[in-house]
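Methods: holo model generation. Sequences were used as deposited, without trimming of termini or removal of tags, and paired with ligand SMILES retrieved from the corresponding compound records. Each pair was processed once, and we did not select among multiple samples. The sequence and NAP SMILES for this entry were:
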Amino acid sequence: MSYSVAVAGASGYAGGELLRLLSAHPQFTVTTVTGFQSAGQPLSSAQPHLRSLADLTLQPTNADSLAGHDIVFLALPHGKSGEITAELGDDGLVVDCGADHRLTEKADWDAFYGGEYFGAWSYGVPELPVGNGKQRSSIVGSTRIAAPGCNASTVSLALAPGISAGVIEEQDLVAVLAVGPSGAGKSLKLQYLASEILGSANPYGVGGTHRHIPEIQQALRAAGATSPTISFTPVIVPMSRGILSTATARITPGVSASEVRSAWEAAYADEPFVHVLPEGRMPRTGDVLGSNTVLIGLAVDEAAGRVVTVTALDNLAKGTAGAAIQSANIALGIDESTGLPVDGVAP
Ligand SMILES: NC(=O)c1ccc[n+]([C@@H]2O[C@H](COP(=O)([O-])OP(=O)(O)OC[C@H]3O[C@@H](n4cnc5c(N)ncnc54)[C@H](OP(=O)(O)O)[C@@H]3O)[C@@H](O)[C@H]2O)c1
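and the model returned the structure below.
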């Protein structure tokens, strides 16, 4: 079966990555692309690398242009997708790559985003341990899916197995991330100019203010935590895409190093896209570039009484567009790996 697809926000980074992956999907056919300031221009002016879709023209982003498709992917600034989805009605499958439908608690939305709260959809990180199973069971058959925040999914995937298995404590979680500036989108901002970031590592959102914190806490609560606390610090580094998260946690007293490792290996043993590396090996962002793969390296720091997880993913692929397409596959009953690369681009 073939599905018609519209991508809103197709001129942006997340929209462009959606299109790159969708163009290789055997059952999805992109028929409509929309933009905001770029509406009316050829897609190739905003996304010159997408040669197979070069005949498409960017339409205005509104309910009329998005109506009548089997699947609509939204890659819009937060606040904008909520406005559109309210007008789209109940038809078809809608996958939002923005934050508007991720948070289940209105209080979290009010504290970290503000403005109208649009309600939560099925969270699009299939591999997350949830209760006795995985998040994917909530995605099966769903018609409204919220793709994850890229930093949030990295840290959640890194820590949830330990929470779920009870081998780490839910307090005093610490995550420091090296992130590429594409995570902040394509629009011009002074702090992301090449002259500001080349040769420099720039922290931002320091001190508990980053918007992905409630999303991580929500995922860890779903994994079994009651009231997790996390110190979360992203640092922009000079690589266009990619996230390397170093997330550490106190090991539950009495739990051995091998029990710690087993928790992660068991959680992801059957996952096509999330791989725990053998002892002694750590991932690099370059290993997952362009792929839907998450690599997790794990070490037990006996002296500190902590587990150290190092996790790499591509923020635009598995961190956004890949998760969105993987979730759409699951929702529609298609093999979940369809159209998604597991191999990175190296060097
Ligand atoms: N970048 C990432 O790594 C990443 C990861 C996870 C989630 N996301 C989420 O994905 C969404 C898109 O992010 P992005 O990085 O792709 O941003 P982006 O590169 O800045 O692209 C934004 C897109 O939205 C359109 N747009 C801008 N203002 C608009 C408005 N007022 N109404 C309707 N459309 C508007 C833009 O159109 P024009 O260019 O035509 O003006 C462009 O197509 C965000 O919600 C972001 O949080 C991004």
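The CA atoms of residues 149 and 299 lie 25 Å apart.
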